[in-house]
């Protein structure tokens, strides 16, 4: 028995509504108020609903996450006369979708194609993480640290918050590799990275700058807090080695720089210089 076509903008006679319902992409029809009058099976599944009755009469806007509401409002108001498509995030499973106009009529009813982008966005995020993350430690690599630190510095300047940049270098790291092997050297790098993540806040930017050098951009951190940050990190690092039952003690040299108006390159330059000066002093091993 042939299904009755829904009350939506007319489609060419060659288009069968059964075919529309079997499309792999979602398709919905909305009235002038932005309320759904038809949804195909793919769109119903995307929205986590069981059937047409769960969606008919429901407004499109509440289905979208709040940060994208104004973007969708403009999309619906333009009724196909503005941007051809937009990418937004739905409330259901935080799903990324692309909304594209197919047709609008004079009564304000519209047909909208809804393409699920979740898989592509996940791959995009995966590739971005690979590009910005150090494989061994899981921290930001040099590129990732610079990108995130520059962003946080700009934000801190706008808010007037103090920042501190720490340059941390493992003492006698070459000897660790030469004496115990590169596998133990890698384990040492991982333990230092883990201690950094435990010691600093998730909002701080932590990266492996290269080799055995790490950088930390501590946000909303007065310069007077540097000494306590350094001591706490050394204590955490020592505890990590004790928990592994290792007699090996690892020393670290630390330099720091502060200055809200300073560029990232200038902060790194100053912190590095002070770190190398500290390295010339007797090794500050973990207690």
Please tell me about this protein's structure.
The chain is α+β, with helices and mostly antiparallel strands and 287 residues long. The protein has two domains: 105 residues, 2-Layer Sandwich (Beta-Lactamase); 148 residues, 2-Layer Sandwich (Alpha-Beta Plaits). The protein has nine helices and nine strands. The strands form two sheets. A five-stranded antiparallel beta sheet has the order 2-1-5-4-3. It has a four-stranded antiparallel beta sheet with strand order 7-8-6-9, sandwiched between helices. Helix 6 crosses helix 7 and helix 7 packs across helix 8.
State the major sheet.
5 strands, antiparallel
CATH topology of the largest domain: Alpha-Beta Plaits
**Helicity, in percent?**
40-55%
Strand content: 15-25%
Question: What Rg do the Cα atoms give?
Answer: 28 Å
Element pattern in H and E: HEEHHEEEHHEHHEEHEH
User: CATH homologous superfamily name of the largest domain?
Assistant: Reverse transcriptase/Diguanylate cyclase domain
Taking pLDDT < 50 over at least 5 consecutive residues as the criterion, the unreliable ranges are: none
Corresponding CATH architecture of the largest domain: 2-Layer Sandwich
The CATH class name of the largest domain reads: Alpha Beta
- How are strands sequenced across the largest beta sheet? 2-1-5-4-3
Mean pLDDT: 86
Global morphology: elongated
Number of helical segments with 4 or more residues? 9
Q: Would you count the extended β strands for me?
A: 9
Supply the number of structural domains: 2
Q: Class by helix and strand content?
A: alpha+beta
- State the distance separating the first and last CA atoms: 82 Å
């Amino acid at each position: 028995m042939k299904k009755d076509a829904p009350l939506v903008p007319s489609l060419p006679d060659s288009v069968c509504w059964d075919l529309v319902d079997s499309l792999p992409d979602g398709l919905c029809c909305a009235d002038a108020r932005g309320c759904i009058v038809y949804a195909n099976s793919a769109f119903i599944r995307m929205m986590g609903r069981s059937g047409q009755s769960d969606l008919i009469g429901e407004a499109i806007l509440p289905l979208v996450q709040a940060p994208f509401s104004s973007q969708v409002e403009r999309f619906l108001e333009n009724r196909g006369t503005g941007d051809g498509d937009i990418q937004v995030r739905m409330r259901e499973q935080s799903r990324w979708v692309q909304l594209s106009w197919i047709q609008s009529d004079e009564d304000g009813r519209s047909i909208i194609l809804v393409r699920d982008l979740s898989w592509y966005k996940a791959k995009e995020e995966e590739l971005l993480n690979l590009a910005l993350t150090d494989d061994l430690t899981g921290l930001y690599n040099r590129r990732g640290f610079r990108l995130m630190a520059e962003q946080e510095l700009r934000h801190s300047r706008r808010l007037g918050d103090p920042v501190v940049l720490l340059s941390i270098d493992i003492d006698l790291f070459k000897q660790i590799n030469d004496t115990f092997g590169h596998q133990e050297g890698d384990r040492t790098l991982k333990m230092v990275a883990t201690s950094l993540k435990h010691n600093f806040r998730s909002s701080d930017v932590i990266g492996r700058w290269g080799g055995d050098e790490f950088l930390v951009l501590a946000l909303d951190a007065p310069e007077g807090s540097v000494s306590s940050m350094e001591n706490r990190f050394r204590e955490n690092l020592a505890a990590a080695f004790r928990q592994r039952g290792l007699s090996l003690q690892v020393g670290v040299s630390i330099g720091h720089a502060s200055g809200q108006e300073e560029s990232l390159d200038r902060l790194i330059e100053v912190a590095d210089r002070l770190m190398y000066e500290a390295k010339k002093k007797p090794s500050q091993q973990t207690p």
